[in-house]
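Researcher: Good morning. I'm working through a list of sequences from a screen, and I'd like to move beyond sequence-only analysis. For each chain I'm collecting a predicted structure so we can compare shapes side by side. This is the next one on the list. No need for commentary yet; just the structure.
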Amino acid sequence: MGLTPLRHRWVRIGAQVLALEVIVVLGTLFAARFHPHSRPVDAIALGLGVLAAAAIGLSWRWPVAAVGIALASVLVSHWLGYAPAAIDLALMVTLFKAATPQRPWRSIALGAAVVLGYLGVSALTPGGISPEGLLLGTLAVVASLGLGFALVGQRTYARAKREEETQRRVTEERLRIARELHDVVSHSISTINVQAGVAAHVMGERPEQAREALLAIKETSKETLRELRGILQVLRQVDEVEPRGPAPGLAQLDILIKTASDAGVPTKASIVGTARALPAAVDLAAYRIIQESLTNVVRHAGRASAQVTVAYEPSRIVIDVSDDGRGATPGNGEAGHGIAGIRERVGAAGGGMEVGPRGGHGFRMRAWLPTNGVNH
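Model: Good morning. Structure tokens for this chain:
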């Protein structure tokens, strides 16, 4: 795999050199017909043109050397009296490839060396220094450097944008996995903690109730392990021998209701409207929102019961989780973190939410998620 990019680079460089060689050779033969006072094209003229064009093959590794070889070939060609234009194009191409915003002074120095080289050769030729020629040569050098700066700058900007987008996606994926882990572990550990407390409290007097609490712990831990394996499978990006179950969604709402009830918070659920298939991201978000809300009730509501309502509206789904306990507040440590997690998940789905104490006593969380990509 390491040889393939290198092979492609050599093929690309070879094609560029070949194309420039053809242009320079044909241009030299063509230009000689319109410069009757120039020296006739011979092997030396063609050799200098070929050498100048071949110099761009060094540009990717040794740009200064490439400019030096092309400049020397061009100056010798001018000094010997061959027709200009075609061979000068090869020099401008090497100058273009050597220009880089990361090393501006080197690029400027190369441009100055080219202009001074032209001046020196012009001073040695019978015609002397031509102001028009000097101006055109300087403009050609400036244009070559400017185009080189622009191209490298554009490529650098595009690379930075790609890296930024990649980093953004990595960060979003990390946050998503963090939310998944928090929701799974927080909900399960809270349930196990409550059930373990019940088992320890009634073990001596009511062993049957203690047995039920331990069975609930077993079932909750089994479900937690299944979900954690699913998350780890995504991280590893490999197939497991044991097939994964379906992704959590509102189809498993009864599991959340039973888990909360087993944890000592009698919970009921009701569906308003006609249940329908939801986008996978919305379905998972709705499940996790209810899961975290019930976890907060189990942790902080004390002796309470809870009510979960899922309303299917034409363009959104509305989730309402309320309890009649002592109430959890956003400023209450873990409850606050849990609510912040719900808020993040709702925001990621493009929805909204309301939280706060219920009239009288208890706490209520109401969230709505768009099912058609539009926030209402």
